Amino acid sequence: MTNWREAILPGISVTTFALGLHEMFEFLRQNPTVGFAPVSFVNDPAVVASGNRFVSVNSARKADLHGQIVTDTIGPPQYSGAGGHEGFLAEASLSLEHTSLICRPAAATVDGETKSRVTRSLASPSAVATPRHLTGVDVTESGCADLRGLATKERAHALALIAHPQCRDELVDAAESLGL
Asked: How far apart are CA 123 and CA 164, in angstroms?
């Protein structure tokens, strides 16, 4: 990624904030290829629309087999805010040359048990931050599922195949039983 073809700030990857380890901050420190800007600039649809092959990268906590994304809750408790998540996905969907990546772990360990971060459906009360029609490419350490243009059943199968290996067969069966 070079960003050299960008109309605004060529050669610079633009972000609003960073959170991570000391090594990441050392990389960012005085790095001329990374720029920090206010949310009002980074999230401005006109700025995003001016991008050449814009790629939105967002994190998530959970997805269901339809491709609905939960970003900020685990069950009822809210752990963070949705931020610009849906806006960036919507902006990425405005052009065929843009794309959005949803990056999340395939599973979580809860009380020593592996729990899939892809579920047949979202349990109530889950807060959907991204509706299924805006989900582009879902990425886990088990692979990626390009959901753009897929029918509902195809989406379900693609998501099941990038689930944690211990959960995959159950989700493939669930995708089949949806009858979509």
From this structure: 19
The CB-based long-range contact list for 67-70 (8 Å cut-off, 24+ gap) reads: 67/132, 67/135, 67/138, 67/147, 67/155, 67/159, 68/122, 68/128, 68/130, 68/131, 68/132, 68/135, 69/102, 69/128, 69/129, 69/130, 69/135, 70/122, 70/126, 70/127, 70/128, 70/129
At residue 180 the predicted structure's pLDDT band, cuts being 50, 70 and 90, is low
Give tens-digit pLDDT for 76-91: 777 777 677 777 888 8
Q: pTM higher than 0.90, yes or no? A: no
Q: What are the structural domains of the chain?
A: 1-52 (no CATH), 55-177 (3.40.1080.20)
Cis peptide upstream of residue 125 (ω within 30 degrees of 0): yes
Tell me the pLDDT tens digit for each residue of 41-70. 988 878 877 777 788 888 888 999 999 988
Q: Which residues lie below 8 Å from residue 52, measured CB to CB, with a gap of 6+?
A: 5, 6, 7, 97
